[in-house]
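Suppose a colleague, Dr. K., hands you the sequence of a protein chain of 286 amino acids and asks what its three-dimensional shape might be. Before reaching for any lab equipment, you can write down a predicted structure in token form. Begin with the sequence itself:
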Amino acid sequence: MELITQTLVRSLLPKRDPNGHKGTFGKVYAYGGCAGLTGAPVYAGEAAARTGSGLVFVGVPKDVYPIIAARCAVSMAHPLPDSYPALLERMQSCDAALIGPGAGRAAETEEIILSLLRDLPGPVVLDADGINAAAAHMNVLEGRRDQRRVTALTPHEGEFARLGGGLVPGAASPGQRERAAAAFARQYGCVLVLKGPDTVVAAPDGRTLVNSTGNCGMAKGGSGDMLAGMLLSLIGQGASALDAAVCAVWLHGRAGDLCAQELTGYAMTPPDMIQRLPAVFKELEC
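The predicted structure, expressed as tokens, is then:
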């Protein structure tokens, strides 16, 4: 087990080309959103932009598109195409895709998610309802073992249990969390981010790293969507899925720590955390 520290994150962050342009810094796509869960893709898209992505696209159902588009200041929201081939074409033109934030559990949505997991040729971040859709079809996840199609999953303990991770939510010791995460990542050839106190990042080769930042004030709806967007952004900028996960969880937790110091764990919210990301990156430049 290795501790994720500021020094490690500083060494792994993708470097910024001073002569770069929008295309240099990654083109990423987030698929999600539904009635009642319109904030999730908004937080994911804004966090991706705040983490350095050059172009962030957010695809959402037509019925919630006006709501979500009005809240997207820097990401480019659009209504989902009428056909699956058109959606696939649009997503595979990007450097990385995020599937799941606020997507809901409708049967049609779950079928689209499973089809995307089968068909997308590049890296995928699977979060929230993307994880729920995959839970009953683990063969689809196993079919993405090819390193070019690496999948990074970001479950909390409840979602991890639904994936068959072998933990009782809320009852696992730190050592049990690390062993279960490592076993899952090996079995499915994925990068696993097991969220919670002392978030664990596990790699397909069995390596595990434990985060050193974060606090209980982050345990609010939308925090995980923010993390998923940050992970998406770093993969889109060229980081490996493992390096991106290591950086994202530390940056996410550090933004949460700055919020707790200023706003308290009671009053801080995910948008507050997104607004603290510039200060976190400023610290890493010192």
